[in-house]
Fold these 4 entries.
Entry 1:
Amino acid sequence: MNEAELQAYSDAWNNHDIEAVMSFMTEDCIFDTGGGTERYGTRYEGFDEVKARFIAVWTDIPDVQFINARHFASGDRGCSEWTFTGTRPDGTRLEMDGCDLFDFQDGKIRVKNSYIKKVS
């Protein structure tokens, strides 16, 4: 993958287009969230489990966007930096900086490892 493909992936996220998002993922993909009870966050494994988690993000925060994106790719690794914005169901506005570290396999994302700043 390259920077243009990572931007297309980001655009698919912002369009809430699950089919487009998942077209960038391998069948055995892994998503490690930015938080959770384990050192790596919470892990979702496999195409269907990752897809369900991504849909849940849009369900939980319907206006979620990843803005100010910057991307880097080299070989089988990549990074996207972004600002996460959205509104919780209770009306609380969210805005946090973060990044995704990617492992690529056969031109697709195999691992999406998210890191996000904690806002107190």
Entry 2:
Amino acid sequence: MTDRIAGVILVLLALWYGFGASRLKAGFGADPLGPKVFPFMLAITLFLVALAIIFRVDPNPPWPRLGTWFNLVFVTISFIAYAYLLVPIGFIAATTLETTFVSQRFGAKAWQAIVTGLLASLGMYVLFVYALGIPLPVGRVFGGR
């Protein structure tokens, strides 16, 4: 029964996300596909996964231990903090901090988490800025807007 409840919640979330994507407006000279395509793909994927969860029910799903719930709450809070820190401290610093924190929550040693965070943030920065031409915030503390 818990699988079905989770599936229904995910279906509702997918519909809400898809509705939000449908309200996106393309600016002048925007990409021919527009800003709606990627969010719609995410909404459709989430919807299909939710249906799979609803119709392929595990008769006795294991519930996470209490420590896992704490990790989920801390990681959720960290993603909210990441969203607020992205513009003030920039993409590279915020993503390094976030990836380091999440890596540690998943059991990485401190040095492994730091290396992973730094390499992931630099790799994504190069990918988005230089390969895809998508500008990312440098950070107000570093003289950016």
Entry 3:
Amino acid sequence: MLNTQQIGKCGELLVQYKLLLFGIESARLTTDSGIDLVAYSPQTKQPVTIQVKTNLQPKKGGGKGKLSLDWWVPEDSPAELIALTELTDEKIWMFYVKELTEVAQQHSNGRLHIYMYIDPTVKTRKKNQVFAYEFEAFLLKNRLHELF
């Protein structure tokens, strides 16, 4: 079983791996400054800072059979981009901090909470529940050329 630090490192490595597949170099930062990776954009010729938040897998949440993902991100993240990752399916959603602020379902104690249900057929009681398919546009593979 992986511990929290190992899960976080796996998320960072997943982002680096996927970026490298598209010819984008990146490096891990060893300091705990809120920036996990610095990627170099061949298009803009500029570095891009990334904070990575990782889930190992979807977890039960909100009732029977409801699997969800959720992440907490500091509102004052120094990174330009936030990568939300899920290791089981190797998914990466990439947001500018401003975008994440707009789509986060909760703002609490200086942190943003974003969550999504995995199964679109699940019925929920609340009208503001969000499903993973609603964030398709933010998947790294769909934003790569826009971001880098």
Entry 4:
Amino acid sequence: MNFIRTRIPDVVIIEPVVHGDARGYFVETYRKDKLETFLGYTIDFCQDNESKSKKGVLRGLHYQLPPYAQTKLVRVITGSVLDVAVDIRKGSPTFGQYVAVELTEENKRQLLVPRGFAHGFVVLSDEATFAYKVDNYYAPTHDRGIAFDDPSIGIDWRLDPASLQLSDKDRKQPLLQDAELFDFGEKLYG
């Protein structure tokens, strides 16, 4: 596995090694020991989730507040998505900045989105199956979000905004300046 720090160093791209032949392929999608050695801290994933969506479906930007904050390890099983992580840690040198990575069934890349980041994705292919691990259970009382089209963040979702399909919840999320956020010095893992 190859681990790549992005321009926001806490957000990490993971490139697995794919072993292929005439029969198909084999790939290790997760190795706790290698990931934790690279990061320098422990992550205890407790739940796997999967969603299937059509082109133009945008899910996000979502996060949970402490003590139910979540680290997510996300990947695409079929199709392609633009996956986005936004730094929402007040006081961080990269506060309000984002990382966008195309995850596809071909490149098999994954993105580690740590606690303290809002997460979202938009489907670029006709359809996509998206999978993710989380290290904390869903807590509706601590579930929060940020507007996907917040001009202060300025995410280029690569699709015509008029073609995007969002839930009612995601259409009504607050701007970053009005959202409940994390503090940069707050311990968010282990």
